[in-house]
Amino acid sequence: MNKPVLILGATSAIARGTAAAFAARGHALYLASRDLDELQRSAADLHIRYGVEVRYGLFDAEATATHAEFLEKVIAEMHGLEGVVLAFGYLGDQMAARDFKQGARVIAANFTGAVSILSECANYFEPQKRGFIIGISSVAGDRGRQSNYVYGAAKGGLSLFLQGLRNRLFASGVRVITIKPGFVDTAMTFGLPGLFLVASPQKIGEDIVNTLKKSADVVYLPGFWRFIMLIIKHVPEPIFKRMKL
Ligand SMILES: NC(=O)c1ccc[n+]([C@@H]2O[C@H](COP(=O)([O-])OP(=O)(O)OC[C@H]3O[C@@H](n4cnc5c(N)ncnc54)[C@H](OP(=O)(O)O)[C@@H]3O)[C@@H](O)[C@H]2O)c1
Question: Model pTM?
Fold first, then answer.
């Protein structure tokens, strides 16, 4: 089996779990992020462990002018693509809500950059009439909370974008899956206060790949987050605005 998969933000802990799960199923991989040294180590490790072809290259979500050329290069090197996993993301800190320079980076990394590269991917898959796009959004995008609402707004925008893309690509048989993880034990959440029910990135990666065998469009991981977010989304606004979340 070859069926190459492009992993964007491949140095993320969740992406590593996802890449390992794809490699274990025999998929060739293209790993992309801004850290070439780390990508080289990951690529060598995956190749040794699973015996699949693994290539890697530089990708910066914020450098949108480079995205079309980047994707062309990946497609040429891999002789086509079966699917794409968008895993990059940037949480920023509390200052993102008070200092627009920081907020703009959060929006660029999580939303604008994602829209840019996924638009290129969609234009590639649509005429092929096959393929998949898996976008990692977040439960943070389901409701605005004072602790991270710039990140939440960017992820909420990404979820809506993926929904529209799914609607557009359905007719061509290209699957678009939205993943909404809850808390996962990664560099992004390291040391953050108030975390609970924290999942392992390896398990989340396995679950992400397994969504391809199911028909779901929007997947909460672990699954119980669907119920937690159902409750959170239904708290009436006059009460919600008084809560410290
Ligand atoms: N951890 C959680 O609890 C959690 C919960 C919900 C959703 N998520 C989402 O899940 C995804 C993976 O998260 P994680 O916790 O595994 O992340 P992580 O370990 O903190 O890694 C973040 C990744 O994003 C990449 N990245 C950041 N800015 C980038 C940019 N401008 N261009 C390209 N790559 C960029 C980084 O790659 P380089 O630095 O190598 O470029 C890194 O690989 C993210 O989209 C995150 O928002 C995470």
Answer: 0.96
pLDDT 10s digits, 14-41:
999 999 999 999 999 999 999 999 999 9
Pocket of ligand 1 (CB under 6 A): 9, 11-14, 33-35, 38, 59-62, 87-90, 109, 113, 136, 138, 181, 183-184, 186-189, 201
CB 186 within 8 A of CB 14: yes
Query: What confidence tens digit (pLDDT) does each residue in 139-148 have?
Result: 999 999 998 9
CA separation (Å) from 71 to 5, 116, 119, 121, 150? 12, 11, 11, 7, 28
Question: Residue 96's pLDDT is what?
Answer: 72
Residue count of the chain: 245
Q: Which domains does the chain have, with CATH numbers?
A: 5-240 (3.40.50.720)
Q: Which atom of ligand 1 is nearest to the CA of 88?
A: 24
